[in-house]
Specification:
Elements lengths: L5 H10 L15 H7 L12 H15 L5 H11 L3 H12 L15 H10 L3 H10 L4 H13 L5 H24 L8 H5 L18 H25 L3 H17 L12 H9 L3
């Protein structure tokens, strides 16, 4: 997530705290952590050894009256890398059936493979397994589904249904961020699972705009930006004001032969293209 001065504010608080403060972090390699470490006392903990992890996990399984196969037990302990929270999350996924066999191993899945495999899944259980294996930021997961659906060639009714589910997921995540009740996160995957439908028309898309529109923004946007800057100076307006208010009227006047501008030839194509869009 973006940092808008939070690290600097935290450092100032830590320099002269009014109450004891304890911070916990999984890593101290980032630049922000280097600054924070200068004003605190760092105590490093070693990862919990596999032998103790197994004892702790077996104790949990006995209390919950559930079992894991020896192979799954070793796999969970190995993948957790000494982190109890990761071990418990992985165990919960396994004992609740959210790790079905799929056509590909999703242990180190990326968002593109995850989205594509979700809509190619042959059953809802397989789709559920893909969702739970996508260990990425919840916001990134929601955005990935949105951009992939909005740019796909599906009918309006199906699109409306999908967008309603995305909206429900987004509302749930917004509630989590507002209340900091992270236990609600367990319902996010089940909400996104409502999107499941074996549909080859939907493929991962990083951007929520079509390629023609993206190319237009990329290439035509530069010329419009330069034109707006030039005209804004002549009309004593800000560039944004001319782009949103003045440009349509200028184009309309040029189209109806009511205005002639002495501009560089490089602006000819973009002015002609924009005039064609005026109805």
């Amino acid at each position: 997530r973006g940092d808008y001065g939070g690290a600097e504010a935290l450092i100032q608080i830590l320099k002269d705290p009014t109450v004891p403060i304890v911070l916990a972090a999984n890593s101290d390699f980032s630049d922000k952590m280097k600054s924070i470490k200068k004003v605190v006392k760092t105590i490093s903990f070693k990862p919990i050894p596999p032998r103790l992890l197994r004892m702790y996990l077996e104790n949990i399984l006995n209390k919950e009256v559930v079992t894991l196969s020896p192979g799954s037990l070793i796999k969970v302990i190995d993948k957790s890398r000494g982190d109890i929270r990761s071990m418990i999350n992985l165990t919960q996924s396994l004992v609740t059936g959210f790790n079905p066999q799929t056509e590909k191993s999703f242990e180190t899945i990326n968002v593109e493979d995850g989205i594509n495999a979700f809509f190619k899944a042959k059953s809802i259980e397989e789709a559920r397994g893909v969702l739970y294996a996508m260990q990425i930021d919840p916001r990134q997961k929601i955005d990935a589904f949105y951009s992939s659906i909005i740019t796909s060639s599906i009918d309006k009714n199906t699109l409306a249904k999908y967008l309603e589910i995305i909206s429900k997921s987004d509302g749930l995540f917004g509630k989590i961020m507002k209340t900091q009740n992270w236990r609600l996160l367990r319902y996010l995957n089940e909400t996104l699972l409502e999107l499941y439908q074996n549909d080859d028309r939907i493929r991962y898309s990083k951007y929520n705009l079509s390629w023609p529109l993206l190319n237009r923004i990329r290439w035509d946007g530069r010329k419009i930006k330069s034109l707006s800057l030039l005209m804004a100076q002549k009309l004593h307006l800000s560039r944004s004001s001319f782009s949103t208010i003045g440009l349509p009227y200028v184009l309309f006047c040029i189209k109806n032969n009511q205005l002639e501008l002495e501009l560089e030839e490089t602006f000819g194509d973009i002015i002609k293209k924009e005039m064609e869009l005026i109805k």
